[in-house]
């Protein structure tokens, strides 16, 4: 029998409802863009940020600057590894035809849309990598550890040191400066990276070579 249980169902406020409708509308528009002609699967934002995975995409300008720096640092025919730095990977792929190769190591399996260039990566198991990813086989490694903790940086550093021939470009919080120097021998750059959404923590770049970011 139906009784008055319906009264117990929580009702959304009109403000929450409106916000929810706006969110779904934006989502539909984004999906529509993806299926429309000319959609670029490598553009920043083509895969949504997932805050539960501590994902925050760089601004277009920052991603371009870091990608260009990586290309110059890697040199002609160079190999570039992007560790937890998908925005930079996407910018590098937009430069299709340039003389370099790139792969992306990330925990988020949505990036498997990038085919063989995607390598599943969990910083908790820093050396659990495919056999074909040979040690010291990348001219530069760009890394953006997902969490501002020494443990996360230390484990990511193991991966970086395994992959790189020498050059390292690290992006992390300003508060990680001492840990970055300790675990990777990198120094802070003048260039200040920006994100598409403002972060509470000050963010910086660190390198261990003479870079164009100073």
What does this entry show, briefly?
This is EFMT1 methyltransferase. Keywords: Cytoplasm, Methyltransferase, Transferase. The chain has a seven-stranded mixed beta sheet, sandwiched between helices.
Helix and strand topology:
Blueprint: H1 14-35, H2 60-74, E1 78-83, H3 86-94, E2 100-106, E3 118-120, E4 138-143, H4 150-163, E5 164-173, H5 177-184, E6 187-188, E7 203-207
Parallel strand pairs: 1-2, 1-4, 2-3, 4-5
Antiparallel strand pairs: 5-7, 6-7
Total helical segments? 5
Strand segment tally: 7
Shape: globular
Q: Structural class, judged by helices and strands?
A: alpha/beta
Report low-confidence residues grouped into runs of 5 or more: 33-39, 42-46, 49-54
* Mean pLDDT reading: 83
Main sheet strand line-up: 3-2-1-4-5-7-6
CATH topology of the domain at 62-207: Rossmann fold
Superfamily (CATH H level) name of the domain at 62-207: Vaccinia Virus protein VP39
Q: Let me know the largest β-sheet.
A: 7 strands, mixed
CATH class of the domain at 62-207: Alpha Beta
Q: Which architecture of the domain at 62-207 does the CATH hierarchy give at level 2?
A: 3-Layer(aba) Sandwich
- End-to-end separation: 74 Å
User: What's the helix-strand series?
Assistant: HHEHEEEHEHEE
β-strand percent reads: 15-25%
Instruction: State Rg.
Output: 20 Å
Residues in helix, %:
25-40%
| Oligomeric form | single chain
């Amino acid at each position: 029998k139906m009784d008055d249980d319906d009264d117990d169902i929580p009702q959304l406020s009109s403000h929450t409802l409106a916000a929810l409708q706006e969110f779904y509308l934006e989502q539909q528009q984004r999906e529509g863009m993806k299926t429309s002609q000319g959609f670029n699967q490598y553009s920043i934002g083509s895969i949504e940020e997932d805050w539960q995975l501590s994902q925050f995409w760089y601004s277009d300008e920052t991603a371009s600057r870091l990608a260009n720096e990586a290309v110059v640092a890697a040199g002609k025919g160079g190999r570039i590894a992007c560790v937890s730095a998908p925005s930079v990977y996407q910018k590098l792929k937009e430069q299709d035809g340039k003389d370099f190769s790139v792969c992306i190591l990330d925990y988020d399996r949505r990036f498997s849309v990038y085919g063989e260039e995607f390598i599943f990566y969990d910083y908790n198991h820093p050396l659990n990598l495919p056999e074909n990813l040979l040690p010291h086989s990348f001219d530069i490694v760009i890394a953006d550890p997902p969490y501002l903790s020494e443990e996360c940086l230390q484990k990511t550093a193991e991966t970086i040191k395994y992959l790189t021939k020498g050059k390292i470009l690290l992006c992390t919080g300003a508060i990680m400066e001492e840990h970055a120097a300790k675990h990777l021998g990198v120094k802070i750059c003048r260039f200040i990276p920006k994100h598409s959404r403002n972060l509470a923590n000050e963010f910086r770049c660190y390198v261990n070579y003479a870079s164009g970011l100073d």
